Each structure stands twice: as structure tokens, then as C-alpha cells.
Amino acid sequence: MLHRFLQCTVMAGCLSAAAAVNAAADSAPFAAPAPVVYVADFDLDVANVTPDSGPGQRVRRLRGLLPSGPGPMGQDKNPQEHAKHIVDEMADALTDDLKKAGVDARRSAPGQPLPTVGWQVRGVFLRVDDGNRLRRAMVGFGAGQNDIQVAVSCDSLGAPDLQPLYQAVDEADSKGMPGAAIKLNPYVIAAKFVMASGDEKKTIKKTAQQIADAVVAKLHGAAQAKPQ
Where is the signal peptide (predicted)? Predict the structure, then answer.
């Protein structure tokens, strides 16, 4: 099956700028206690469709934005299962990579109240349509394009007002197009990671590692900026 995922390139924002901190500084251990980072599930839409087993099934899957890949024992997953799998794989891999870097990383459930100390990593899978507008990426049939991006932010929970990562955009001419039109919140510093072709599992892990490296660099920068 065709899987479109990752060649990860940081494009914008101080999270990406933090990734440019030299490797020696990034590998230094954090002072105790380690920073606490809550990893949220990244947003990913699912098409409202029901899988079928007809002869056209494979063709429709191949047209999907994130085609439903082969599941365990070669069985295809439906879009809902596939979307959950992608989100879980990303969150688990990112949490594990942060822990390996000495961060007290924890997955946070959707809607879970968070404390006012620590950091939150959140993100959204998205694509750029033919009109150069951002849309939330969608798992399902006939979604069209395969290339996607993920926009990620790492925000201090001590901020007085945590702004949403993105906002919905009302567009009268977008009916029938897959994925909700959005715009990234200009008051939130986010980095974009461009995802190109590759094996799904490997590229999710690679994406997570790239994001973790950028988060660790930002945490080191924040620690160094604290008054002594």
C-alpha cells in the first residue's frame, strides 16, 4: 500500500529555531527536577465513511489523504482505527523519545485538566490545498492528496492564557473538500514538519524524534534563560 509520510524539515517558529542549538548543549542533562512535559494527542480528522470489501476498495484507499494501511496479519484497518493508530503511535513515540532525553514526559488524555506548571506539546496534522489554504488532514477514502504536514507547539503551562493552536476558517467555496479549513494562531509559535513518502511506522518514529529534539532544545534554552 502507498503510505505518504515523512521527510521531516523544521520550517518556522522558535521551536524550530531552538532545534539549531548545538548538539553538545542539547545532550547535557537537565537540572533536577527534570522538566515535566505533557504530550497531547495530535489532531487528525477521519472521513465519515464505512469501509467495504468490493473490488474498488483498494483504489479508494490509495486515493486517501492518509490511506488506510495494512493492519495486523495483513488486514486493512478502517479509517477510524487507522487514525487512532497514527495518533497513538506519534504520542507514544514522542513521549518515549523525550523520556530518553531526560524529560519527565507524560501523555495527556483529551480533555484532561493540566497543572499550571510544566509544558505542553500539541500538534495538528494538516495539508495545503490547491488554493494554498491549510486544512486538517483526514484519514479516509477519496481524500485526494497524500502529502501532509504537522504543526507542533511547545508551550509553558505557566502562561496566563494558553491560546488555541489553530482556528477554524469559514469558507463558502470549500464545500465538498476534505478536511476543515484552518489557520494557525499567530499568537502561538509553531513549527511545521513536512511529511513525504516513506514507511508509515518508521516515518512516524522519525517525525517524533525530530519533534523531541526540537522540544529538548527549547527546554534547554528556557532553562538557560532563567535568572540565576
Answer: 1-23
Residues 25 and 223: beta-carbon distance below 8 Å = no
Would you tell me the crossing angle of helices 200-225 and 79-100 to the nearest 10 degrees?
40
Residues 20/203, Cβ–Cβ less than 8 Å: no
Pairing mode, strands 148-156 and 138-139: unpaired
Q: Quick one: CA dihedral 4, 93, 122, 21, positive or negative?
A: negative
pTM recorded for the entire structure: 0.78
Within 8 A by CB and 6+ apart from 98, the residues are 37, 39, 105, 212, 215, 216
Instruction: Write out the chain's pLDDT in tens, 228 residues.
Output: 323 433 343 344 456 554 544 444 456 788 889 999 999 999 998 876 554 444 444 433 433 444 444 443 334 568 889 899 999 999 999 999 999 999 999 999 999 999 999 999 999 999 888 888 899 988 874 444 457 789 999 999 998 888 999 999 887 655 566 678 999 999 888 888 877 666 788 888 988 999 999 999 999 999 888 776
